[in-house]
Amino acid sequence: MPKILFIQPTQYGADGKLCKQKKIFLPGLVFPLLAAMTPAHWEIEVIIEVVDNVDYDSDADLIAIGTMGYAMFRGMEIADEFRKRGKTVVMGGYMASMVAEESLKHADSLVLGDAEISYPLMLRDFEEKSKLERIYDHPISKLADLPVPRYDLLTSKPIGNMLPVQAGRGCPNTCSFCSVACMYKGRYLFRPVPEVIRDIKAVRALGYKQFYLIDDNLVSNETYLRELCREIEPLGLKWSTQCALEIGDKPELLALVKRSGAQIMSFGIESITQAGLDKLNKGWLNVDDHKKRIAAITKAGIMVSSEMIIGTDSDTEQSIKATYDFIWETRIPLPRFYILTPTPGTDLYEEFLAEDRLISTDWKMYDGTVCVYKPVNLSPERLTELFWELYKRVYSWKSILHRTLLNPAIWKSPRLYLFAFVVNLHYRSYVKKGNPPNIL
Ligand code: SF4
């Protein structure tokens, strides 16, 4: 019986040690999905390095490494170690697809982009020819007929109280810094609603009362979102997702989303300066609408989580300090920040390369906590300092209490705000160690 070992690498912290956690709060979907697509005669093992250790003496025949964000570099190290021991290594995922040439130095083969067609072909070649193509790149044109993910591979790990479900893949927008835009180039493929509901029922059958939709921008297809919410509502589960802030303009849709069980939504707010958003090809978001949209979403009973970028071309000392005031005023319970990072493969990378603005080509520094380019109004060093100052202020006791336990919205969902308080403490411990709180 051939065996495949899936590995999701963790990343290095500021202390040079691997980041580890007691639990995986938001486990990924890709391995359970690939496992469900794997022929039954294969043995499957999953290592999620943030909670598991990698056994380089594994008896697996094929090592499959996922590459998400900055953990890519750890993935390359793991790949090198296995190849030294004569194992066949395949890499896939966002980063391997975006920097294919570099990834191929560490892997025998790459599965680029969507794996639904490429992965079975790769497995077949491995079994029948004992030889892999260097690259499997077979884009899909529809997202349907997917099997129910092998959730048992996640539930056997120490995970939080949610399992992942996918409704669609991609995004209609093309923000220049974004890896989703880089991969999907404005495409958004949606799964048939009955298939999504089937997976949600599978999550419920395992005893889970919550799930998260790993989509990036569900509100971009309002008709689909409405249909989905109408079907989710009778299931009686709570759910969370990522979304565009525009949903704050649609009170009736917000009410439907809330009724269906939505509790936390994460929004890419990015910047409080319009010029900053415009430059990142995200000018469709209007900074003048930020506060009223956040207030509307909060009023609807949905907790706001946010992602913001520090270091857009219009950022100054003042605008970065004003970002703290923005978080204070809006009382966003779960805010996160990143230094603008021209991830290789994105339009932003090409732009900064052409403008000779990259000050480091050591991709290991591209983790969103260090400035790796020449900002317009600040030195790179000062920008990095301001980023950490902002994070420390936002995760001070005063700010944490103001945004969670003392937030007037707590009366609508006390348990949810208590949960946000605990997450803030977790984030605070990350920030104190000099790590960004993004490993959940
Ligand atoms: S809206 Fe979000 S997911 Fe879509 S391209 Fe922009 S940053 Fe990426």
- How big a fraction of the residues is strand? 15-25%
The low-pLDDT segments are none
* The CATH topology of the largest domain: pyruvate-formate lyase- activating enzyme
> What's the end-to-end separation, in Å?
34 Å
> What is the β-strand count?
14
Tally of separate domains: 2
Structural class: alpha/beta
- The CATH class name of the largest domain reads Alpha Beta
- Helical content stands at 25-40%
Tell me, briefly, the overall form: globular
Q: If helices are DSSP runs of H or I spanning 4 or more residues, what is the number of helices?
A: 17
Attached small molecules: iron/sulfur cluster
Characterization of this structure:
With 440 residues, the chain is α/β, with parallel strands linked by helices. The protein has two domains: 134 residues, Rossmann fold (3-Layer(aba) Sandwich); 272 residues, pyruvate-formate lyase- activating enzyme, CATH 3.80.30. Helices cover 37% and strands 16% of the residues. The chain has 17 helices and 14 strands. The strands form three sheets. A six-stranded parallel sheet has the order 2-1-3-4-5-6, with helices on both faces. Strands 7-10-11-12-13-14 form a six-stranded parallel sheet. β1, α1 and β2 form a beta-alpha-beta unit. The longest helix has 19 residues. It is globular. It starts with a strand and ends in an 8-residue tail after the last helix. Bound molecules: iron/sulfur cluster. The site of iron/sulfur cluster has 12 residues, from α7.
